[in-house]
Give the backbone structure.
Amino acid sequence: MKIIPCIIGLGYVGLPITLNLANSFVTYGFDKNRKRIENLKNKIDVNREFEPKKFDNIKNADNANEYIVNLINKSNNIIYINELIRTGQINNPKIKSDKRFKILYFINVDFLIRKMSRVRFHGMEAVGKLVDLTWWGPGFEEYDETQSVRKNIDLLENIPDLIVAYKPLEMKGIKDVDIPVCLRYNETYDWDWTTKEIDGSGAEFVIFHHKNDKYIPMSRYQDHYGDKIKFVHIPHCAEKEVFKDYGMKKKYDIMIGGSIKSQTLLGQHYPLRNKLEGILQKMFDMGYKVYHHPHPGYIHDDAYTDKYLIDFAKAINEAKICLTCSGAPKSRFGKYIEIPMCGTAIAADIPNQDEDEFKEFVIELTVDMSDSEIIAKLREYLDNSDKLNEVIKRGLEWSKGYTQEYYAKRFVEETKLFIKENK
């Protein structure tokens, strides 16, 4: 085993230890003071304990600090993954399972830990309760990123029936595996990128969470690929242990959350939500209690805790009405389930699918309505508690049908059918 000592802190104690170890080992030193690192690399000890010649065995390591940070992050990743294995949330890839249907969820551990949006992971966690689901990929212990996907899979005890991949083009040689690859998509308005990923991964089975997006619906991809690839629609669902009625007092009349001024290939991605931000200010001026929940950002070291989603869910709980929209693609976003699941009324436009269902409980707004029309519509519910409570009740009941358990059931049914059809 190769020994690489690492000394944290290069002060009166750490520096002499580092210099002595450097006589025998490749040694890394870490200090949060970047100026001190620069001085030491130039053989300057501002404490005047060591002459420049003492640094002769020290090699220039411009990225030493970054290396140690990455090492610590990797260590934390392994600790987190081992805890998930210990608690049974994910399978140990080295332990043979007795479950008959085996799926490998192929993902970079950095995304699993740090990506704030957790809906794709919640769904797969629910799938893992129904089948033998193994989580593995770059960043997991014993995964060799210098080797191909095929060679890494050969190390597993459980050879999967299906690979579900996230960011597949970042995984070496995934197209060359002899196991069917499944991709899952939310928005697919970027035709060039989506087809590049499907083609580059060799995917044979693709799940769309949005069916009738305005610009490029699932049917266009079906027509393009024909019989070569099976496309299936499974709608967005929400995690009921996060998005739920927390029994909190309604502090606000209206709130808005989520990204506002986002620009994509479609231009302004949330035109109605941008308009509603201005409505919020006008209603505040009218004496209503309003709240704009700030977007937390997309990447966090503690995203795996669901902290940011729980904060959002509790903010929704505190509002009588939560504003959102389906965006330029007219998508059935997760917020259309998450908001009613929290026991709060949703005010938004109607997405391009399940229209009749949404009209039963969504306070319908459109980008073509004037500010005064939108305000009048919201006041119609805020000033009539019976009418407000009725749409809250309907939305809460409807959302019970779209938990991650439902997603997992549909996912397993469709994947088993796909495998059966392709034997």
Observations:
- DSSP finds 15 helices and 15 strands in the chain.
- Confidence is low (pLDDT under 50) at residues 60-65.
- The two ends are 44 Å apart (CA to CA).
